[in-house]
Every structure is written in structure tokens, then in C-alpha cells.
Amino acid sequence: MKRCKDVTIYAKIALEIVLETVLEIVLETVRRKESPETANMRGLTH
Hints:
Low-confidence stretches: none
Mean pLDDT: 84
Radius of gyration: 17 Å
Strand content: under 5%
Number of helices: 2
Largest sheet: none
Helix content: over 70%
Shape: rod-shaped
């Protein structure tokens, strides 16, 4: 039972890492397409 729990925890961590990586790639792509003004405004809000 404990081993099953460990696998679930590892799966959640892996999923979070993957999602964060994908999100970063998407944000980078969006930033490159945007004009500098929009990128600056987005930088201020975050």
C-alpha cells in the first residue's frame, strides 16, 4: 500500500514539473510574438 502511495506522489511531482516546463515554453513563445510593450505590461502584472 505504501509503495502505491509513493508512486502517486512521484507521479504528481513529475506532472507538476512537466506542466511547469510546458508553461514556460508557451510563455516564451508568446513573449517572442508579442510586442515589447505588451511583454512589459505582462511582466508588471506577474
